[in-house]
């Protein structure tokens, strides 16, 4: 690899050798994405793909959206980093905007969803003096040691046992099991309003209401479902439950690294100076992008999410081999009569990027700005891609 005069890799050179120098933590597709615009990305061969994965529900406003892009450019010209030893304007602005959306909260900023979960775990332990955590079978909260310890997926947990003790798991939407699991040792109940990697499984309003009534802090993991993804800024707004803690990440800065823990003004006091930290947390550039994203998610955009989500769900239900459609807004899971991994590969070969969420669930998380025409294009591709992977009984 020979760099050009400005330090970039020239167009005639390949970075394939570099793939061998990455630790094999991901089973990456043999596609190198080099450019994105709106709801589409292009690979290094110039082929375009309609992006209904958005970097695992991260590029919420679409690639290169002008609002966060302008905010990032302006901030890069002013200040890249100062650390949390000093105040910075973008971090305080973002905290204020998130508090207004929440209805009164304080924020801790970090770099990822897993880090936000780690902060929530520490906050709850300090605030309550209790080490127990109740989470859900099939739930996913991250891959750092603490976050993995409260992830209800044995295949991810078992290779790294023993993990942090104190986690208990109950089935989603089982109110009796939830109540029985919370005793005097439990200080935190940690739930995804819609299980993302666990199969795009929405939690019932009654289950979440029961969780809010328990003698423990309630943390809603909105890392994937928050920031407008379900048709309201926070997913919990549609459920009628106000949590003590919320974790955010993914779509918050439209692709720049950021995570956040929000703590309700009414929650028990937890952190004091020195209890927690993050060198890069609250980075001015990421916070400037996130503040612009928060402003961009207005009533018109949320209405688009709800309308396009209804259209996408209806279109998915009409496809042969789709057994069920779950989710809300623009986070949908199509249960297919076949292999989700094979469906993802077939869609990619046809020019559509989607995700899986278990063995038989195709997960779709398009940009919140998706148009009806782009949605119809995706459904057309799905109609062409799915027959090769669904059970023979569904084939015409």
Please provide a written account of the structure.
- The chain is of the alpha/beta class and 396 residues long.
- It folds into two domains: 16-60 and 299-394, Aspartate Aminotransferase, domain 1 (Alpha-Beta Complex); 66-296, Type I PLP-dependent aspartate aminotransferase-like (Major domain) (Aspartate Aminotransferase, domain 2).
- It is 33% helix and 19% strand.
- The protein is built from 13 helices and 17 strands.
- The chain has helices spanning 16-19, 54-57, 66-76, 89-102, 113-128, 145-149, 154-157, 175-181, 205-212, 284-296, 299-317, 340-349, 372-385; strands at 33-37, 40-43, 48-51, 105-110, 132-136, 167-170, 186-191, 194-195, 201-202, 217-221, 245-248, 259-264, 322-328, 331-336, 352-353, 355-356, 361-364.
- The protein has a seven-stranded mixed sheet, with helices on both faces. A four-stranded mixed sheet has the order 1-2-3-15.
